Amino acid sequence: MSRAGTPANPLRDPRDLRLPRIAPPCGLVLFGVTGDLAAHKVMPAIYDLASRGLLPPGFSLVGFARRDWDLAAFTEVVRDSVEAHARTPFREDVWRQLAEGLRFVSGSFDDDAAFERLRETLAELDEERGTGGNHAFYLAIPPSQFAAVADQLQARGLASAPDGGWRRVVVEKPFGHDLASARELNAVLDEVFPRGSVFRIDHYRGKETVQNILAIRFANTLFEPLWNNHYVDHVQITMAEDIGIGSRAGYYDGIGAARDVIQNHLLQLLALVAMEEPTSFEADALVTEKVKALSSVVLPPRLDLATARGQYAAGWAGGHPVAGFHEEEGIPASSTTETYAAITLGVDTRRWAGVPFYLRTGKRLARRVTEIALVFKRAPHLPFAPTMTQELGQNALVIRVQPDEGMTVRFGSKVPGAAMEIRDVSMDFAYGGSFNEESPEAYERLILDVLLGDPPLFPRHEEVELSWRILDPVLAAWARQDAAGRGPQPYASGGWGPESADALLARTDRAWRRP
Ligand code: BG6
Asked: What residues contact residue 127 under an 8 Å CB cut-off, 6+ apart?
């Protein structure tokens, strides 16, 4: 040991993950191959992993869908998706190798014969391509269909692995609609798959900048001493999008911004910011701390004053006129689904008591940006003439999750000249400027971790249920407002959300950042 607790030879340390982690012989079965998620994220990420040399040579990708496709048609679909959306350049040699492992099974989820064909296909792949009985089932399908697929996999003996092999299941949000339905969903999965084999994807956890929250906090001495209610005035977590709902009316209507991203992405960010130092970065240790943080979250008593919601109206985006939410195809005029949501939360711990966490998200806002801002208290005393500090705001530490990944520290500095005038300035860290490698897509990291059976980045069912416990009272309050004819407030496309959201912070003399 060079120092207490530090192994002398880091190469012997199992936590040393610097060498490329290559997936073992295995395959992935993709349900929902015709959906957006598969085309935009999952299939391109698989290609990117292949082109980075992180998939085993015999890797297989089996598509399962109702379409009456043959293998050639499926192969073309995968290729189109890869060419259009992969992060890494298209290379014929990589593609050829990946294409050799493609298979397609046509059938619906109630078609026993189709699942029998799936069983035979996997057995053939084990034989021909050496996948060794190791298969992950990726359910890129609506949760209402999870039970049907899980039952079929169980009935065909596909849910449990042969000796020496593994079976895993990957599910995508929404993990339920509220606490009760999340519990039902968890029960369905737990009945068929052993707990450690269920991987819930929250793609924000796969983003480099999100993983970096723990590095920033726990690898440095600089920030952690300030990371508490002695210094932090409040925390703002923003996930703003400039796009509308596009062609996703069927999914989005009745779900809304809070269920779509606050329940998962934003509460995961909150947990990483609020949690205490874990004893290690193993899944159990991380979950323990995240669960403690989420269990400490409290809602203010007056939810009408502590939350805001809105729906985008027609306006302009990127120099083009855009439709309002109610004009989008598939959205009924009576819809009260929110496209913007802001919520005030408290974290009842010694570290955070008294510090509000403001979470907001919205579609058709001024720009696409996700950031976490710790806004600090003002200095207890300013030994300057008041006129000299007019342009001094509150210090802030901003973790820029996307798009220009990095971190900003904002503080006051003297303006050059004879007077002691103070103005806000920024100190910036940008990934692009400090590192040569481009960050992998979140789905690359997460799919690789599924194939490796590495669980730290996947929220556990306890976290999912706690997140619903936080959100359910808000959703109930909004439903009561709807019943009383007080639905979401319209906001202009291309702006920063409804007036009620500004009022929410203005009540305590605070304001949202305009990133
Ligand atoms: C998804 C939501 O989880 O995240 C979408 O369902 C949203 O509504 C998307 O557009 C945003 O992801 P990203 O990675 O582009 O921030």
From this structure: none
